[in-house]
Automatic annotation (TrEMBL):
Molecular function as annotated in GO: diphthine-ammonia ligase activity
Name of the protein this chain belongs to: Putative endoribonuclease L-PSP family protein
Top-rank EC class of the record's enzyme: ligase
Keyword Ligase: yes
A Pfam match: Ribonuc_L-PSP
Organism superkingdom: Eukaryota
Single GO biological process annotation from the record: protein histidyl modification to diphthamide
EC number: 6.3.1.14
Amino acid sequence: MEYGYSWENVLYIHLYIADMNEFAMANETYVRFITQEKCRFGVPSRSTIELPLLQAGLGRAYVEVLVANDQTKRVLHVQSISCWAPSCIGPYSQATLHKEILHMAGQLGLDPPTMSLCSGGPTAELVQALENSEAVAQCFKCSICTSAILFVVYCSIYIPSSERISIQQKQDTYLNQMRSLYLDIGNMSGVLNPIFLYVLVPDLPKRALVEVKPILYAAEDTETASDYVPDLSCKMAQSCWGFQHELWHDFCFQKCIVHGKICAVILSITDELAVKICSESTGVNQVDGDQQTSLTEGQVERIARFCIYLLDKILLENYFSWDDAMNLRLYFPTSLHMSQERLSLMFINVFKEFAEMTRRVKISKEPIFNLVPVLGAGRSATSMDDIITCELFARKS
């Protein structure tokens, strides 16, 4: 309300809770504020997961809200039991479409007719969650195998370590098989190569082992050629904090670009990369063999600067700016032994430094990023051990 928006403007909500046993209570509280009456154009989509909030000093609940400055969203809200896709297990919609971006609610491996988790373990739940995602996507005339920009896969800590590799393998196999079917019928024009983020969490709704959260590009049906002309002046990148491009920088990130429209990036800082980043600074000692637990604040600050430097470089190289950023989510593990408050202050100061050096980012009262404490995160289901993971999503307005 402070910025002149209401619940009608909300596209998506991430509901993070400290204890999944309080899921029902959280829903009861949630629905007191977010109702059909307050959301004339449909209730926003939602993802709910348990996170180690208390360890990060964030209390028992943490809400992240994505807001649009218009009311052009379109939602899919199925409340009754059906055979094609699960009904919602809370006061939210299955998906929200806004300006060609389809924000899908977190999908569990629920059997639509029974609303029960399918049997067969994490890989079976994953396949069912992907099938549910595809059913929702087809309502908006798109597919997760051709239109997906980003998949965030939340993995429960209850999945045995030995079974995590099978999750990633099954997802790759499923999507590749679907793409093959589309190729056979000649529907492969404009197929995107999505990026993937795996997040290790304490628990999920219904004690699920896997939750899938896809973001898709649902192109409008139009024959009008794009009139987008890139601003070539944006490509004049400059050195920040002494960082210069190295070949190994290209192995730090995944990106998915829709030319002139969308730039999505997952930047993963592993222990190995942290050694490289910190060793480049003469004023910061190298990371020792004890890995994350041994990082000093100076080293974490150096890593934060590198993240902003590299994200800025990727934006510029693809003709985007920080003004286009819809969200910047920073995942940090509890093993970092740093509170959300301390880490937030560090990134705020780094962004201020960056703004003073480049004039490419606007500093306002609220930070342009959101910090998310997790048990682990990474680009692979078998290596969810990043020190910091950055999820950046930018869109041309």
